[in-house]
Amino acid sequence: MNKINQMLGLAQRARKIITGEELVVKAVRQGGVHLVILAEDAAANTRKKLTDKCTSYGVPYEIYGDRGTLGQALGKEQRVVVGVTDAGFAAKLTQLLHQ
Q1: DSSP secondary structure code for residue 77 in this structure
Q2: By C-alpha distance, which of 6, 8, 5 is closest to 18?
Q3: Who contacts 80 (Cβ-Cβ below 8 Å, separation ≥6)?
């Protein structure tokens, strides 16, 4: 298990993660998300919707892994989109994703 997956799992256990397209979009609109992570195999429509929202509201986003990888990191079923609600976790994940 790599450091990104470990950090996602830690953030999940700390309840600093939200998942699901509609919940993440709502949180982006309300300013409650510091980072959005999209699966590489997200549907084109989902990817466009979330990247447009993130760009519009100034929320950084990253593309990482596939839906199975994201789900496994969170200890859940497949996940396409993950919102990180804590600034510290978001900063560390961004750093790890750019290594």
Answers
A1: S
A2: 8
A3: 21, 38, 39, 41, 42, 43, 46, 67, 70
CATH fold of 3-97: 60s Ribosomal Protein L30; Chain: A; (3.30.1330)
Whether pLDDT at 1 is above 80: no
pLDDT digits (tens, 9 = 90+) for 4-37: 999 999 999 999 999 999 999 999 999 999 999 9
Cα–Cα distance for residue pair 21/52, rounded to 1 Å: 13
Residue-range domain boundaries for the chain: 3-97
**pTM of the entire predicted model:** 0.92
